[in-house]
Amino acid sequence: MPLRKGAAALGVILAFPVVLGGLALAAAVLDSRTRGTGWAGPLREAARLLGQRRRRTVAADGLLVTAGVCALLTAATLAGTAVLPLGERPLADLAVGVVWFNAMEVAVWAALWLTGWGANSFYPLVGGYRFLAQGLAYELPHMFALITVAVGAGSLRVPEVVAAQRGLWFAVAMPVAFAVYLLSALAMAFWGPLGGPLGVDVAGGVRAELSGPDLLIFQAGRYALLAVAAAAAVPFFLGGGAGPGLPAWAWTLVKALAVLALLVWAGRRTAGLRMDRFTEASWLVLIPAMLLQLLVTATVAVAAR
Amino acid sequence: MGLSGRLARWAGPRPLLVATPYGTRPRLHAEAEIARRRWHPAAAPAAASLLVVCGLATGELATAVAEVWESMPDPRTRTDLPPDAGPTEVSHALDEVAARLAGGGMGVSGGGAMAGYGGDHGGGMEMPGGIGMAGRGEDRDGLRLEVLHVPLGPVLADWPGGLVVDATVQGDVVQEAAVRVVGADLGADEPFWDEPWHKAQSGERVPRGAAERRGAAERLDGMGRLLAVAGWPAAARAARTLRDRMLMDRPAAGLAAEFARFERRVRGSRALRWMLRGIDAGQDDVLGYALRSLDVVGAALDRMDDDTPLPANRPDPGSTHDRLPALLAGAELAAARLIVAALDPRTEAAGGHG
Amino acid sequence: MEAPVPGVLAALGLLAAGVAGVYAAARGPEPLATWPFLSGARPAEHAMSRYHVRWYAMSLVFLAFDMEMVFMYPWALVVAEVGTMAVVEMFAFLGLLMAGVVYVWREGALRWA
């Protein structure tokens, strides 16, 4: 009996990374599909990169590059598998789950900059710095969105955030926060219109000198990040696993896939946003809008008590 | 063919295209064929496994191509498409290199370029790789910061073939820029975009519609580069598809509807307007150039079935090379790329050194 | 909190195994030593150098705001309990910061092209 129990627990534990991997693959497939490289594009590219030789540029800091490349996937894994519930409960039901998610996802800043700096090459360097500037623009509205969620729920524990949406999803109760979250999700995964750090105008930016397994892991990390950003919207704004008919885990997956598809689709429809222009809008429109949203949410929370 | 060969065949190549001044024809065919095969073009040699040189790489351009080839990791292969290559020829060439790649590619990389470089040298004053640290210079804001010498082009994605902008940069700000063209010394061919006019000049009867098509396609080709550099790959792809249709001899009717859709999408993009407005490209900002290109294509669509003969002398399109250095100085790299894409300088012999 | 560590460790272990597997499966004994990509030219100098960070002023404003965020997480937990006073205090603080943002904007630090 204890053996079977242990196997069940192991199954639950394994389910989280497996689902994350599946969502990341789904992100890659959706991306490839809209790019015109077909459904099988990501798998073909993975097979190709597995057979490709690694590179090392002159006087590169190989350790930094490898650390940066692996940090991307690690950040996505830690942000995605630990505190986001697949169904009812997350792997680690931390009292500060929302903060954990935020902290892990910020590691992307380091990951991209290390990768960009370490190659000792002009284009990756520019790409790395582009992401830092992007971080300055998106991170505050992003954090305000998360804090608004926490105020709405009165808790930083993710299952309690989900429970607080039993009456009304936060996507409806705090639409500005939801919209800002989706935009910052694109920025965090440097994807679509916020893909400047990997821009074609800088020959691929951060990833310009990556080949073979390095590029494969970098790309996997990026898609995982996009998947995590989309999946986090489910407990934070879309009522978690709540829904009729299906079990909670199924609803979680359906909603995560829907958000992912929305992000990919919207990302394809917009021209690239450069930070030398976007930053101003971010600080003068997004942050004040988020402050108003927070004020409304806090007032409601105080009044409801 | 073993398992790994079959896997490599299924995986397909990742092409890196090299445009040359007289390689427009094979480049268009290669771009269309690569899109049809669902290959994903690379923006730098690291990710690429297939180097596609469109046209003849001569002189300095040949050196640059060789350098890029040396920095491609294996398995890798290369194909050189002749300037007059037609669609079937391009398709065959790509078939051939894809098969060669599945068999392991051409040779093992890493013999030539870095032969003198043995990794980090043992301390002392010798600099790694035999190159020095960056020197410093005044920047446009009055700071003394490191200066890097960065040539933009000739081997660069979404960049006019053969164009080189020798830039000195601090951070990602271009401080100074000098413009030249490499690989255009074989001036025997006429520029691809001028072909109808050349035929008319040599006495052939060419309908005006043919020249209109060619002109519209040139604008769409430029739009493709501009939209790609502006970070909107989906719209860039649409521009290129339209460009290719424009060059096929089909009635304009279906084309007009398709272009209208594309035009609505581009004109309607607030993000694009927001990002392109106010970037000085000389006579207008980059947005102005983009919108004017749309106007030109729209006007050409109305005259596409015009059957009157083309006059023998064509108004000179003029060169934009001289204006580039002043416009690029002080621009951010992203803006510099947009400016070049908006002006879309011709690099065939007329351009020469400027 | 019921033993969150094993689950997260298992996920990390799986990740490490996957990454190691990818590197092991990839071919080539030695990475290709190469010049960085520079459009087909060799670099005249190393790219690692001080970078002209023109959004420097903005990064300081960001830091100020980011520090403030540290207070907001605990605040979010107690705001409903403490009531109106907590809202007033926090938004007075945020208002001060926003005044700084408006000043910085007027100085032109939010645009740098």
Helix content of chain A: over 70%
Mean pLDDT of chain A: 91
Number of domains of chain B: 2
Please trace the helix and strand order of chain A, writing H or E for each element.
HHEHHHHHHHHH
Mean pLDDT of chain B: 85
The separation of the N and C termini of chain A measures 47 Å
| Coarse morphology of chain A | globular
Give the strand line-up of the largest sheet of chain B.
Answer: 4-5-6-7
**Rg over CA atoms of chain A:** 19 Å
N- to C-terminal distance of chain B: 52 Å
User: Helical element count of chain A?
Assistant: 11
* Structural domain count of chain A: 1
Protein name (chain A): NADH-quinone oxidoreductase subunit H
Transmembrane segments (chain A): 63-87, 94-116, 136-156, 168-191, 220-239, 246-266, 281-304
Keywords (chain A): Membrane, NAD, Transmembrane, Transmembrane helix
GO molecular function, one term (chain A): NADH dehydrogenase activity
Describe the structure.
- The complex is a heterotrimer of chains A (305), B (354) and C (113).
- By secondary structure, chain A is mainly α.
- Helices cover 72% and strands 1% of the residues of chain A.
- By secondary structure, chain B is of the alpha/beta class.
- Helix content of chain B is 42%, strand content 13%.
- Chain B has helices spanning 3-11, 24-36, 59-70, 87-102, 195-201, 208-229, 233-247, 252-267, 270-276, 286-302, 324-328, 333-343; strands at residues 15-19, 50-54, 77-81, 135-138, 144-152, 163-170, 173-181.
- In chain B, strand 6 (163-170) and strand 7 form a beta hairpin.
- By secondary structure, chain C is mostly helical.
- Chain C has a domain at 54-113.
- In chain C, helix 2 (56-82) packs antiparallel against helix 3.
- The radius of gyration of chain C is 25 Å and the shape is flat.
- The mean pLDDT of chain C is 85.
Features:
heterotrimer, A: 305 residues, mainly alpha, 11 helices, globular, B: 354 residues, alpha/beta, Rossmann fold, 2 domains, 4-stranded antiparallel sheet, 3-stranded parallel sheet, 12 helices, 7 strands, disordered C terminus, NADH dehydrogenase (ubiquinone) activity (chain C), membrane (chain C)
